[in-house]
């Protein structure tokens, strides 16, 4: 039942949502998950200094947040060696992607992405009336040449690329990305989603060149920094584009608690190093558990491992469902041929033990059905 | 410097922002405010139970928030005696107003509000290409008849009304609002901003009738609940319209900490009663301080007092500036004739003492200039 007074654009939008949360599954199953390994959250948690800062900030929650996110932008500027005018902070990458599309994509404008890449980006493009053109992954990685060719062919306003990639975990090295950026038409902007950039030692991120007119890069405190629940991320781009966010963004949209926590998390570089080690260890654990059960782990530069189940999407979906029934929340790629895989987020040893126990049973159930 | 690739709509938007935060003023002045009485925050703070809940939730900040805000919507539904399908939760009223405009206002559509009412609503209307038509306040209150006449004349998609009103503190009683609602054309939706509804015992809010097709009502945890920094509010309306928010909203946009805090705040009805008493006491204090200095307090059903300075807008602006120089942050109405007034938020006794000391000096300075 759609409201008759919606704009024609809004009325035509589907009711489907990009993701159903694990809480909805828990409510339906009337049981809590024992291991939450589906949303590439960081069960290792935020820096203890960030937790302490957020807990203290709860007292001050009566004050509106600084709409300019001044302190955090200054710290990020120093951290990355770029000017604060190149940085806009938002309530996670999701919201920033929405503002980016709103600023740059008019109704009917072409946008290029990969078939199977981030659904929430597609949601925003549809939401502002853009027209999506998808290219296929090549060798389980986003295909830079195909993205560029399609963008030229369609005169696209935006190209979306996640590097490292979600949901496959693959990545292009920094030099390849830099070369790719040099080839982008000047009428097009690369939306470079680097949500997983801090998760590993892989050199996937090119040097910052924030005045480059054709690139806007996205970072988040939701992944390696372990603060998905606080909702805070940022975008880095040319001043003219970053400044334009001020025309449309929700100025008081980032919580004061999140700003305070992100400041503390950013400063705690030792903890980030520890998290990176814990991720690397968990990648090994998930890979070993997968292999022991006949599943092939794909290389990853993220905080998750994508495992080939060796059969089709229906089989992988049955594995996912059977894992959920055993209390293990995971997700998987949405389209063929990527959907022959399941995707498991890194987590501490207690989660790995739960996974190790549940996976063989889930595979057996999936095979029987 | 605007980016050449912006949509025509985005390129045409002004660079002005709805509000400059007090932090920006503090940075410019290189001094912190001693009393923060400008943004109608609640210096009485959130419920201690909400503070405790948020502090605890900081540990769990690694988990994404429930995108359905299920628990809070269930609690709100029970609290108000309405169905949860009539409620959408967002990162404060600001964000929800943005989604409302986006859903209902197409480029060129007419929208009616009062000249001097909430700038952030106007910001969203402009941001989505709507055309604002403003009517003047009458007797320092929003003029229901004028709003309705203008909406009919312009075939408006939306009417904005804040009740109780910001920035004047005035209010229409529940029966007047109910009668007003009955007269709204069926092609028009009333955006009823009730941010201040919980601040006083004034009967300004009509009974809930959430299936009424022509009304969407907005509530927040930023005012009486004292959680402005957490960014959480909600809208109540017909299922068809509330459901449509799912097509455009940032599904993971409300922090887990805010959801947890709001649940605790809603349950602590004793504390809300206490806050209401503290607000009433502070209204008396501000009124008395104003009168002692020759300023006339206007009646209020909010957590602020609007004081007539008895001269023009330039004088009131000088008072505001002089108060800021004395460490007291306040705001004031933006347009004549409302701008003969200053607006002072309620606060605890320490803030009242600061105000009492600063006001006579500020008035003297403003008079001299």
From TrEMBL, chains A, B:
Entry cofactors: pyridoxal 5'-phosphate
Domain Aminotransferase class I/classII large intervals: 37-358
Gene Ontology molecular functions: histidinol-phosphate transaminase activity; pyridoxal phosphate binding
Catalytic reaction equation(s): L-histidinol phosphate + 2-oxoglutarate = 3-(imidazol-4-yl)-2-oxopropyl phosphate + L-glutamate
Family under the similarity heading: Belongs to the class-II pyridoxal-phosphate-dependent aminotransferase family. Histidinol-phosphate aminotransferase subfamily.
Pfam family name, one: Aminotran_1_2
Domain of life, source organism: Bacteria
Keyword Amino-acid biosynthesis in annotation: yes
Protein name: histidinol-phosphate transaminase
Pathway(s) of this molecule: Amino-acid biosynthesis; L-histidine biosynthesis; L-histidine from 5-phospho-alpha-D-ribose 1-diphosphate: step 7/9
GO BP: L-histidine biosynthetic process
Entries under InterPro entries matching the protein: Aminotrans_II_pyridoxalP_BS (IPR001917), Aminotransferase_I/II_large (IPR004839), HistidinolP_aminotransfase (IPR050106), PyrdxlP-dep_Trfase (IPR015424), PyrdxlP-dep_Trfase_major (IPR015421), PyrdxlP-dep_Trfase_small (IPR015422)
Keywords: Amino-acid biosynthesis, Aminotransferase, Histidine biosynthesis, Pyridoxal phosphate, Transferase
Claim: Transferase is one of the keywords in the record: yes
EC numbers: 2.6.1.9
